[in-house]
């Protein structure tokens, strides 16, 4: 039975929290201090309300330019000013081990064990600045904890349509399942199943997706393309830039699936339809087991759509962790104080009995 979801976007997000955060609610906010100022938006929004405690991961990577470190310190100072006098904890989270193994999700969950408590009524996971390995694992753990203890979990995310800083991630050479999203993969049952891979297409993601493809060896591939998009040419440009990968995967444009760039519900619903149709067809025709494996690697709002589908259907998720960043500009943009164009709130209620 499906989780019940209530979603708000744009200005409805502010209206929701304004009406929802009454004196009866006790809210735990979990976010990440990042180098992009948009990551401070939801913390500042909830700081208007009295009974909210704030917890932040500070993701630590071995390869981060000084310019981004400085931007992160600037954002942290801004947060401390906005949240002055509130219950605030910032904890360092090492994303990789000394041998470059990715432990981000597992370590994030371990930290959260000391943060989550039944004294709260709600837990808000802010995915805006979280890396995907942290975000997916943290969200799954928070949803499980909340549903088992009568709390309400919320996921929020904000994204700007245009970002002046040309920041690129450096991906790990290792493709692996996210902590909490492996399920029965790499067992005999799953190894004998027909595997459908649903990767998210995005700029500069080609090498990371190639590593995932080589590790997973899927039977079918249906890439997700952002359409419609804020930049109308983006889908065409992405298909053009990803031609070498699509050829190597033996994937045609007829197998590409389209999902709205700015609506995580559309991404989620598209994956759910594809998964259920494929399950029904193969179960009736061949009796074979099927698996749908997701790979978020693109636009953040679309990744949240994948997260919702993975939580709903218990789908495995394979990715490559970002172990560092490069930046292609000499200075980082000044903070943008206007609300981000794309902002979402999604409350996840347990299924009705």
User: What structural category arises from helix and sheet content?
Assistant: alpha/beta
Share of residues in strands: 25-35%
Average pLDDT score: 92
State the shape. Answer: globular
Secondary-structure arrangement, i.e. CATH architecture of the largest domain? 3-Layer(aba) Sandwich
Question: What is the CATH top level name of the largest domain?
Answer: Alpha Beta
Low-confidence spans: pLDDT under 50, at least 5 residues? none
CATH topology of the largest domain: Rossmann fold
In total, the number of domains comes to: 2
Biggest β-sheet: count, sense, barrel? Answer: 7 strands, mixed
Oligomeric state: single chain
Radius of gyration: 20 Å
Secondary-structure element string = EHEHEHEHEHEEHEHEEHHEHEHEE
Helical amount: 25-40%
